[in-house]
Amino acid sequence: MISENYLSVNDLIWPLFVCEGNNIADKINSMPGICRYSIDNILKELETAVKLKIPAIALFPQIDSDLKDENGSQAIDENNLICRTIKSIKKNFPDLGVICDVALDPFTDHGHDGLIINDIIDNDATLKVLEKQALVQTAAGCDIIAPSDMMDGRVGIIRKHLDKNNFENVQILSYAAKFASSFYGPFRDAVGSSKSLKGDKKTYQMDYKNSLESLREVALDIKEGADMVMVKPGMPYLDIIRLVKENFKIPVFAYQVSGEYSLIINGINKGLINEKSIIESLISFKRAGATAVVTYFADRIASKL
Ligand code: PBG
Questions:
Q1: What pTM, to 2 d.p., does this model score?
Q2: How many distinct helices (H) and strands (E) make up the chain?
Q3: Residues in the ligand 1 pocket, defined by CB under 6 Å
Q4: What is the per-residue pLDDT for 276?
Q5: How far apart are alpha carbons 111 and 36 in whole angstroms?
Q6: pLDDT for the residue 198
Q7: Is 176 helix (H, G, I), strand (E, B) or coil?
Q8: 286 is catalytic
Q9: Going by C-beta distance under 8 Å and a sequence separation of 6 or more, which residues neighbour residue 114?
């Protein structure tokens, strides 16, 4: 009667990892309970998602390492793993929302989200690849393009490029306030970029000592055409979600990232905390002001809601 916040299935976005092959469910050691699935198995998993009425999924590819190169060329191949996955999903589940990351890290042999030129991540050279990556994913049927690369100016160029190609209705969910975080470790294992990653991502992801910088990042992305903005990671950044919520009239999404998932699930599996900690963690995002939450717990929690 007095509850101020609720969580419903409508608030959940389920991230999934896809790999090549048939009938594969490859366990990710650093994320107990989470697998990389081949396309046929992703479709089986999605039957559950659709039954539970989860509105959208976010897809991440683990491509074969011999297909990775310094320019992340696979990212713009219209027959790459991610595009083939989108097509099969849309054929089988046309009403399920499909969100795709735009960033080069699953495709580069150095594990960075952008191109390295003269030893630095070259912002503007990267933009030219990102607009192509966004276009092949959109042409394959993606509903929401989610740039997670943190290059400056990418929302604007992606918006223009999609409009020019008659994809005005495709939306942009910008990872606007994305911090250079240690909590992404297990994800990098999942997409196979952790071993190869040279250096860190601090020249393009945000400094976790800052909060006002997130307002500048969000303001730029909205001006460039973002429809929704993301704060990431989640729980260590609830203050940022609140700050963005109070300063902008735009949907704010929270990403409960891989490291947060792994801490909670290991805690539960070891009996240190109980299962109810999952919903408590998800409600904290709603309390902070998030409209929706990207969480690896989506399927598990949706069945309880
Ligand atoms: C890629 C990307 C990352 C995540 C989502 N998209 C990793 C990174 O920036 O290194 C992290 C998600 C997670 O940890 O669950 N740019």
A1: 0.96
A2: 10, 12
A3: 101, 103, 105, 113, 148-149, 184, 187-188, 201, 257-258
A4: 97
A5: 18
A6: 84
A7: strand
A8: no
A9: 104, 121, 122, 123, 125, 126, 149, 151, 204
